[in-house]
């Protein structure tokens, strides 16, 4: 709403007085407006920071290695356990770029996981593993079965854990690690750290018998109680 034109045309005998009064009112209003704008700006900044914090903050850990196994304790806002004893086994961004990213193509994330696995094994004094297309294929079949049956387990859908690998006529020594993480907890580097912090999975990862491995990664909106998840399957073979 504009200022009425009559307010700017006062009788000549009180013109100076009215002008001075009007100037004082405008000055006061301008000052109060600046104060109000400043208060609103501060409140908006605090609100924006709070919203940003709530969006980027990680909730209590929701990752799984296998049903029934104890969960890791991860501090709110962190991707790794408190005082992680296996951090030296995690490849840096320079050694395995993209380890904490979940927005890359799944095939690229699988390649990053292979890099991370081999780095950890070499830190342990073990040989690097060669990617076997057969194991990558059977890992993908296991991931698909877990998602299809909504059953995070080695024997998903009631099938034997080694059903896929035996179906391609492989009868040598074989192993498998599974991981499920929500949101950023599904990143390759975080998944590997989960395996490292689990004695059973770590033993599998560091077996000197393995010569080959295959990796599959799949994303889905829901598996059991977990939402927006990334599923990892890492299979190992000796011959």
What does this structure look like?
This protein is an alpha+beta fold. Helix content is 41%, strand content 15%. It has helices spanning 15-56, 106-123, 133-149, 163-167, 188-196, 199-205, and strands spanning 63-64, 130-131, 174-182, 212-223, 226-237. A hairpin with a 2-residue loop joins strand 4 (212-223) and strand 5. The longest helix is centred in the first third of the chain and has 42 residues, at 15-56.
Question: What are the salient characteristics of this protein?
Answer:
disordered N terminus, single chain, 239 residues
Largest sheet: 5 strands, mixed
* Ends apart, CA distance between termini: 83 Å
Strand order of the largest sheet: 1-3-5-4-2
The secondary-structure element order is: HEHEHHEHHEE
Query: Approximately how much beta-strand content do the residues carry?
Result: 15-25%
Number of helices: 6
Low-confidence stretches: 1-63
Look at the helices and sheets and give the structural class.
alpha+beta
Structural shape: globular
What is the mean predicted local confidence, pLDDT?
A: 77
Number of strands: 5
Share in helix: 40-55%
Radius of gyration: 30 Å
Secondary structure layout:
Elements: H1 15-56, E1 63-64, H2 106-123, E2 130-131, H3 133-149, H4 163-167, E3 174-182, H5 188-196, H6 199-205, E4 212-223, E5 226-237
């Amino acid at each position: 709403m504009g200022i009425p034109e009559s307010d700017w045309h006062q009788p000549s005998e009180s013109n100076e007085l009215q002008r001075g009064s009007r100037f004082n009112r405008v000055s006061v209003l301008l000052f109060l407006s600046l104060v109000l704008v400043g208060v609103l700006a501060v409140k908006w900044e605090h609100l924006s920071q709070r919203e940003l914090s709530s969006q980027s903050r990680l909730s209590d850990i929701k990752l799984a290695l296998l049903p029934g196994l104890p969960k890791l304790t991860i501090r709110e806002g962190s991707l790794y356990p408190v005082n992680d004893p296996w951090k030296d086994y995690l490849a840096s961004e320079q050694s395995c770029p993209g380890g904490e990213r979940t927005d890359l193509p799944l095939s690229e994330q699988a390649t990053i996981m292979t890099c991370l696995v081999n780095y950890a094994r070499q830190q342990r004094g073990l040989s690097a593993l060669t990617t076997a297309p057969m194991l990558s294929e059977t890992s993908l079949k296991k991931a698909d079965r877990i998602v299809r049956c909504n059953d995070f387990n080695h024997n998903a859908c009631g099938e034997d854990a080694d059903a896929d690998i035996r179906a391609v006529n492989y009868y040598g020594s074989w192993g498998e690690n599974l991981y499920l993480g929500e949101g950023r907890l599904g990143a390759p580097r975080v998944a590997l750290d989960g395996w490292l912090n689990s004695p059973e999975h770590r033993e599998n990862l560091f077996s000197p018998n393995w010569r080959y491995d295959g990796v599959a990664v799949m994303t889905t909106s829901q598996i059991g109680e977990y939402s927006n998840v990334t599923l990892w399957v890492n299979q190992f073979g000796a011959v």
